[in-house]
Amino acid sequence: MSMTVRRMTRAATAGLVAAAALTAAAHSAEAADTLGSAAAGQGRYFGTAVAANHLGEADYAATLDREFSSVTPENEMKWDATEPSRGTFTFGSADRIVDHAQSQGMDVRGHTLVWHSQLPSWVGSLGASDLRTAMNDHINGLMGHYKGEIHSWDVVNEAFQDGGSGARRSSPFQDKLGNGFIEEAFRTARAADPAAKLCYNDYNTDGVNAKSNAVYDMVEDFKSRGVPIDCVGFQSHFNSNSPVPSDYRQNLQRFADLGVDVQITELDIEGSGSAQAANYTKVVEACLAVSRCTGMTVWGVTDKYSWRSSGTPLLFDGNYDEKPAYDAVLSALGGSGDPGGPGDPGEGTVSCTATYTRTADWNSGYNGQVTITAGGEPISSWTATVTLPAQQSVSSLWNGTPAWSGNVMTVRPSWNGTLAAGASTSFGFTVAKNGSDAAPAVGTCTAS
User: What's the DSSP call for residue 341?
Assistant: First the structure.
C-alpha cells in the first residue's frame, strides 16, 4: 500500500479505530491488574515484540490485547522485509501489526531503520555514494509510510562491538561511510518524522562497561552538538552467563542524566520459578527508579515462540499461563490479582468459558451465538476471540464490542460485562458465508 493510499485508508477508518481504542482504554481501566494498565499507573508503557504470522492464533491475540500497551514488530520492519529490492517497499506484514495495535489503542515502536544484520544482499554491493543515498532513501521510505503512527524508532541498531574496545562494529555502513553514518541517520530520521522519538538501541550495554561507555560518549557528543537523539534502548537479554548487572539502575540513570529517555527494549530472562521472578523484579524496579525510563518491552508474548525458547525466558509459558515471573512483574508495577489468562481457570482465580452455537442458517449466511459463563468467582469483564474461516465475514454483531485483526474477532462486553459466579450472558453475530459453511473457532474466554 502506498503512503498516500495508507493515509486515505486511515482517514476513512478513523472513527472505527478511535472507537476500538476507546474500548481498549476502557477495558484497561476496568481491568487494572494487567501489565499494561499497571505500568500505565506508573506513567510507563509495557510492551511486547509481535510476529504478524501469530496474530491469527486466538490465545496469542487475546493475551497480547489484554496485557500489553505497546508493540514492536519482531522482524516485519527490518530492511530485508521492507525493501527487499532497491526502491521497492513491501509493508504488508508490518501494516498488519500496526493496524492491530491501533485497533487496540496500543503504541508502536519501529524496529529498526539501520542495522548491519537482516540486510538484503543488494545493500552490501553498493559503493559509498550509492550506499549513503540508499540509507537515506530507506529511512525516508519507511518512516514516511508510517509518519505520525510510530511512537519511537530504533534509528540505528547495534553499531558497537562487544568486548573491551568500545570500537564500532564492522558493517557496510561503518566500513564505507565511516563514523558519521549514525549522525546522518538520526538527522535524516528527524526530518522524515519530527514527532517520533529517535532511539539508539544495543545489547550488552546494560551495566557500566567498555561498550556502554562508548555508547554513552556518542550520546553525550550528540547532545552537545544538537544531533537529534531522544532515547537510548537497552535490549536486556539476560541469562546465567549474563545476569542483571548490579549497576543496572545506575547505568540507566547516567544515560537519563544526559537528557535522553531510556527504554528497555527487548527484555527476556532465561530461567524459571522464583529465581527468574526475582530477576524480572530487579529490572522493573530499576526502570521505575529512573524517572526517564519510559517503558519496558519483553521480546515476545509466549515462551513457545521466543528466539531462545529452550531457555523459557518470557512471562507466559507455551500454554499462555502466567508464570511466577508474570506475578512478580505485576506486583513490582503496583498491580495485584489475576486477570485470568488463557488456560488458567484455576481455583481462586476469576475465569469464564465460551461456547458457540449456530442459532439460524440460510443459503448465504447464518447467525452465531457465543455464551459466556462465569466460573466460581464473579467477574467484571470478559474477552472472547472468534476466528472465522477466511472466506466469511461478519455483517453485524450485538451485545458485544468487536475489534478485528485479519479474520480474528476479539469481542468484549458492551453492557454485559459483570456476571455473578456461574451466571451467563451472550453475544450474537450474523455471518456472510461467501461460499464457506464451516463453523468459526472460539478461543479461550478470559475474565477479570
Answer: -
How many angstroms separate the CA atoms of 385 and 65, rounded? 11
Point out the catalytic residue in the list 158, 270, 322, 377.
158
Helices marked H in 246-335:
248-256, 273-289, 324-332
pTM of the model: 0.73
pLDDT tier, 349 (very low <50, low <70, confident <90, very high otherwise): low
Residue with cell 485470568: 340
- Give the Cα separation of 223 and 234 in Å (integer): 18
| 266 assigned to active site | yes
DSSP-assigned letters across all residues of 173-200: HHHHH-THHHHHHHHHHHHH-TTSEEEE
Among the listed residues 135, 6, 3, 154, the one whose alpha carbon sits nearest the alpha carbon of residue 73: 154
Rounded distance, CA 330 to CA 74, Å? 23
Residue percentage of the chain with pLDDT more than 70: 89
- Is 158 one of the annotated active-site residues of the chain? yes
CA dist 149 → 93, 193, 341 (Å): 16, 10, 29
Using pLDDT thresholds of 50, 70 and 90, give the confidence band for residue 278: very high
d(CA 429, CA 307): 38
C-alpha grid cell, residue 38: 499497571
Query: Strand, helix or coil at 146?
Result: coil
pLDDT digits (tens, 9 = 90+) for 82-100: 999 999 999 999 999 999 9
Give the active site residue among 57, 266, 270, 377. Answer: 266
Contact 339, 381 (CB under 8 A): no
Q: Which residues contact 368 (CB under 8 A, 6 or more apart)?
A: 356, 357, 358, 359, 386, 428, 429, 431, 440
What is the DSSP track for 395-438?
EEEESSEEEEETTEEEEE-SS---B-TT-EEEEEEEEE-TT--P
Strand partners, 403: 410
Task: Kindly tell me the burial class for residue 80, based on how many C-beta atoms sit within 10 Å of its own C-beta (0-12, 13-18, 19 or more).
Answer: middle
Contact 356, 439 (CB under 8 A): yes
Q: Which residues, 6+ apart, have CB-to-CB distance to 73 below 8 Å?
A: 49, 50, 52, 93, 94, 97, 98, 108, 110, 111
At 326, the pLDDT band (50, 70, 90 cuts) reads very high
Angle between helices 180-192 and 128-145 (to 10 degrees): 30
45-57: buried (b, 16+ CB within 10 Å) or exposed (e) per residue? bbbbbbbbebbeb
DSSP-derived letter for residue 303 is: G
